[in-house]
Automatic annotation (TrEMBL):
The lineage of its organism: Bacteria, Pseudomonadati, Pseudomonadota, Gammaproteobacteria, Lysobacterales. It catalyses: adenosine(2503) in 23S rRNA + 2 reduced [2Fe-2S]-[ferredoxin] + 2 S-adenosyl-L-methionine = 2-methyladenosine(2503) in 23S rRNA + 5'-deoxyadenosine + L-methionine + 2 oxidized [2Fe-2S]-[ferredoxin] + S-adenosyl-L-homocysteine; adenosine(37) in tRNA + 2 reduced [2Fe-2S]-[ferredoxin] + 2 S-adenosyl-L-methionine = 2-methyladenosine(37) in tRNA + 5'-deoxyadenosine + L-methionine + 2 oxidized [2Fe-2S]-[ferredoxin] + S-adenosyl-L-homocysteine. It comes from Arenimonas malthae CC-JY-1. HAMAP family: RNA_methyltr_RlmN (MF_01849). [4Fe-4S] cluster binds at residues 117, 121, 124. This is Dual-specificity RNA methyltransferase RlmN. Residues 103-348 form the Radical SAM core domain. Reaction proceeds by a ping-pong mechanism involving intermediate methylation of a conserved cysteine residue. One of its GO terms (cellular component) is cytoplasm. Its cofactor is [4Fe-4S] cluster.
Amino acid sequence: MTEVVAKTNLLDLDREGMERFFAETLGEKRFRAHQVMKWIYHQHVTDFAQMTDVGKALRAKLEAHAEIRPPSVQFDKPSADGTHKWLLGMDSGNAIETVFIPDKGRGTLCVSSQVGCGLNCQFCSTATQGFNRNLSTAEIIGQVWVASKHLGNKTHLHRKLTNVVMMGMGEPLLNFDNVVRAMNLMRDDLGFGLANKRVTLSTAGLVPMIDRLGEESDVSLAVSLHAPNDELRTQLVPLNKKYPIAELMAACVRYLQRRKKGESITFEYTLMKGVNDTPEIARQLARLMKQFCNQVQYSEAGKVNLIPFNPFPGTRFERSDEATIRAFQKILLDAGVLTMVRRTRGDDIDAACGQLKGQVMDRTRRQAEFKRKLEEKGVSDAA
Ligand code: SAH
């Protein structure tokens, strides 16, 4: 009987992993690994036969032991404002979403890290889908690969994809190893060659993992804050019960202390009408930010990114009024806190923050519970 050996998907390996695979499995030198990486990430080639500077013997070995298998595109959809969304099939029944957002001089790709999410933030559509599993390294970097190929992106030459934010579906710090490996490929010259600060990981606030990220990687950090006091934050982000604001902010201080001076953390703050958008709460947030900047000893250490809430079927929250958003921003600006309002893009294709859903075979039964609640409220279209 012939033994069937599973082929290694090369998209699962960062540079170190590729070098090891070439040495240990193929008995080849590292520069061969580098050549193949360039074909994959700079030329978007998945067929070893097209790698013209790779000799026949090595191509045969690669055919036998390896494959280059990006996620399959189930459909892709352009938005009127230039935003583009892909639904990528993962395995039977599961699919995740990736969104490209072009803006003056830059192109940002919003990448998912898990199929669904287990954190249950009350105002996020992904949460209603429940959780299925972590994405592999190949499935994470594969999202960048698919978008880069579609856009005709040329690493180092003609860059259309300039930034990646890990702000799609899932909590990236709960899939630490695969996310870090994929972020290595995003920043590697043999990969997509993005600068460190152009790759941003966004977290709901897993304190121990923020520390680990600070030790092991070198990317920008964004933290989903959404409330300046524990009582309110625990209601919105249940994870706050485990890691309250004081511990979260202390981890953020430690993160910046490990980085070069002049770097900052972005605090995301989704504005929901009558929930977290009052002047009093804005003042509390301003105090929290000032305190943070003082601790880091850098006046621009914390930036606030206000995100007007994006509604989805069945949600009990509403977007704050424009005047309230402006007033909230003004209080922060007047207190000397750098504050931006993130303008919603791609909402005609449900591609805005918190609207990514994909298709999740839920293992938490949260989806069933959410559908039941919707039915109680008389909302029929839960899909
Ligand atoms: N789990 C990570 C990555 C998700 S990032 C995190 O929590 O940071 C997505 C960002 O959009 C987060 O800041 C999230 O809190 C915010 N968000 C979620 N639902 C939203 C909604 N309906 N409207 C606006 N922003 C939302």
